[in-house]
Amino acid sequence: MKKTVAFHTLGCKLNFAESSDLGRKFVENGYELVDFKTVADVYVINTCTVTTLAEKKCRTAIRQAIRQNPNAKIAVVGCFSQVSPDEIAKIEGVNYVLGNADKHRLLEYLNDDNTTQTDVSTSLNSRSLSGVEGNGTNFVVAYSADDRTRTFLKIQDGCDYFCTYCAIPHARGRNRNDSIANTEKIVEKIAKSDTKEIVLTGVNIGEFGKSTNETFFQLIQTLDQIQGIERYRISSIEPNLISDEIIDFVTNSRAFLPHFHIPLQSGSNKILQLMKRRYTRELFAERVQKIKTAMPHAFIAADVIVGFPGETDEDFEDMYQFIESLPLAFLHVFPYSERPNTPAINLPEKVSAEVKKQRSERLHELSEKKHADFCKNHRLNPSKVLWEADNHDGWLYGFTENYIRVRKPFDQSSVNKIEEF
Ligand code: SF4
């Protein structure tokens, strides 16, 4: 009887790539992947620590796994485990608490199962933090393969920016990446599968290359040459790292799509300074305009944090008008969430939960309006659509190049195909 393993993943695309990669290792070692809502021999919760709510969801998933099978092995891995290992280790029933530098080694811990107490390993120590170990980098490769249509490919990890509100550098260590040559080999391997689209993901991917003396621009030039991958999306890139050469390259490339996700975080320069972000709102607007001039139908989404300490009603109104004036297609809105060991936690003039809620709602409304306008005004006819695999009540869904979700009556022959529509 095969042993069973179930995964529950929270957080970003990077976490999903790492869970999928680890899942493949379990299957290669004779396990059967089962749904997290069912009874399993091993449960893996790949955690997130970006907000208080994310941590709450992690605890809920841990309790759910323990309830479903009290005899199961429970492994809690990833960012929350990295920053709060002791808190998680205290949860009755948890067997393994592995940080980001160790989670890919979970099977070794399981196969060496002669321990009774909770195994805690968050060895994101100074050496791995600095990214120098053995062959010059401790980058752990990962890519997702659960979805036939697209693959999340981890190209970079960690961050050296230390924005004042952010726990990620503490959870994921210093900026590091694999070499372009190794990344190329992985993409060539993925190109032999059914996958048509790769989403390049990481923590601060514009900083790709720092640990190998290469650049993100060089990487995308290399990947664009690889036959067999029809489309690439850049998951998220800092505004100060979107160079003219990257914009010009994407505009004229074979496979990089007109789709950008750019963290703005605040539309107030006063707040951007308190966040220790590395740009002004003027630079952000100028980059957005540069992209829209080169690619008028480009889909640009932005992250925005509301209710950061010091954000007055006037600051918010000013930010609202600034964002309203920009040709953005979607806003990811986050109420500011205090993170332990981050400087922002000690900033004065905290904003109440009620005010954060009101400001979030207004930006969500603005985002809905902007998205509806974008889909109406930038739906190219025809567009090239990559159809997905699932039959949703008789409908087949897909995304255009500029990230507009479309559907048509389910047609098996179109599954995982790029067609004009
Ligand atoms: S750039 Fe700033 S917000 Fe983004 S991961 Fe790094 S520290 Fe966090």
CATH architecture of the largest domain: Alpha-Beta Horseshoe
What is the number of E strands?
19
Give the low-pLDDT segments. 125-137
Distance between the termini: 47 Å
> What percent of residues adopt helix (DSSP H or I)?
25-40%
What binds here, in terms of ligands, is: iron/sulfur cluster
Mean pLDDT over the residues: 93
Task: Report the sheet with the most strands, covering strand number, pairing sense and barrel closure.
Answer: 6 strands, parallel
Strand residues, percent: 15-25%
Shape: globular
When the domains are counted, the total is 3
The CATH superfamily of the largest domain bears the name tm_1862 like domain
Strand order of the largest sheet: 2-1-3-4-5-6
The CATH topology of the largest domain is given as pyruvate-formate lyase- activating enzyme
CATH class of the largest domain: Alpha Beta
What is the overall number of helices?
14
Structural class designation = alpha/beta
Round the Cα radius of gyration to an integer and report it. Answer: 22 Å
